[in-house]
Specification:
Layout: E1 12-16, H1 28-36, E2 39-42, H2 45-55, E3 61-63, H3 69-81, E4 85-89, H4 102-110, E5 114-118, H5 123-129, E6 139-143, H6 148-158, E7 165-169, H7 174-185, E8 190-195, E9 203-208, H8 209-217, E10 227-231, H9 236-253, H10 258-269, H11 273-288
Parallel strand pairs: 1-4, 1-5, 2-3, 2-4, 6-7
Antiparallel strand pairs: 7-10, 8-9, 8-10
The protein binds S-adenosylmethionine.
Length: about 290
């Protein structure tokens, strides 16, 4: 039986996933929606124009991004209340996944409008699909903070987390973030680095965090493009003792300066002194802020 084309309904917001690189990675239903709606709200109209040109789609596109969403959203809500159907797209992948979208989605639902997902590509699911993780649970963290202190603070909070963690990273920060991951999580922890997924220079490599810095440094091209980093969970015993070490460190920090507290906590618990020291420094910096 032929599968019929999907017809967008009036007064509905469609949240449409678009390719993360390879323009062929778009669903038939996404194309039906983009062709059938009254207008499209896009993070960057030029990026969406390129996609539309590839598929011969002609449709009014309005810009909707973090700098204008408070102004634009009421207009889009009014249009949908008047019966229009609207598609929301981001530059790549799934809107709302480390991308704009949540504000319009919340406003549409609060206005009693129907919000429909049109699922498709996302860098997180693409990377997870080839990670071969032993766990069915994982944490999607997205982008780490740009500032080193905040980044290390968050990483030291996550060091004993007992499941794999998925990070997004940009080319200009990947070297620093990987260095901080190695310092805080320890060089033995496994990393799946997925770069330029679905594009010409796609690379998917499994390394330890200790090896990852050298791998990136070995070829400047390896630092280009877009990255998903999946840090594997710590062995169970390490997760438990990492949590215990954090508690010991926190207690010692109330009596001792960071260097001594970290050294003693490392001795008592067998955890790496460097990651405990990073946590201690961040804890004292946070107290001062
Ligand atoms: N909404 C997108 C999604 O569903 O994956 C994410 C958008 S976020 C602004 C951009 C980040 O996603 C990049 O910095 C990178 O971490 C990740 N990403 C997007 N496309 C990618 C690709 N082709 N390969 C690897 N990572 C990608």
């Amino acid at each position: 039986m032929p599968v019929e084309a999907f017809v967008p309904q009036p007064s509905t917001l469609y949240v449409v996933a678009t390719p993360i690189g390879n323009l062929r990675d778009i669903t038939l239903r996404a194309l039906d929606v983009l062709r059938g709606v009254d207008q499209v709200a896009a993070e960057d109209t030029r990026v969406t124009q390129r996609l539309f040109a590839a598929y011969g789609i002609r449709k009014p596109i309005v810009a909707l991004h973090e700098h204008n969403e408070t102004n634009m959203t009421p207009k889009l809500i009014d249009a949908m209340r008047a019966g229009q159907s609207i598609a929301l797209v981001s530059d790549a992948g799934t809107p709302g996944v480390s991308d704009p979208g949540a504000y319009l989605v919340r406003a549409a639902r609060a206005s009693g409008l129907v919000v429909v997902p049109i699922p498709g590509p996302s860098a997180v699911s693409a990377a997870l699909s080839v990670a071969g993780l032993a766990h069915s649970a994982w944490l999607f963290f997205g982008f780490l903070p740009a500032k080193p202190t905040a980044r290390r603070q968050i990483l030291s909070d996550l060091v004993g987390f007992p499941y794999p963690i998925v990070f997004y990273e940009a080319p200009h920060r990947v070297v620093d973030s990987v260095a901080d991951l190695a310092t805080v999580f320890g060089p033995q922890r496994k990393l799946l680095l997925a770069r330029e997924l679905t594009k010409c220079f796609e690379q998917i490599v499994e390394l330890t965090l200790g090896e990852a810095g050298d791998w990136l440094a070995a070829d400047a091209d390896r630092q280009r493009g877009e990255f998903v980093l999946i840090v594997d969970s710590p062995p169970r015993a390490i997760a438990r003792s990492a949590l215990a070490a954090e508690q010991v460190l926190d207690a010692l920090l109330s009596e001792l300066p960071p260097t001594q507290a970290a050294r003693l906590a490392a001795k008592l618990t067998g955890q790496p002194r460097r990651s405990l020291y990073a946590r201690a420094i961040n804890a004292t910096a946070t107290q001062r802020d």
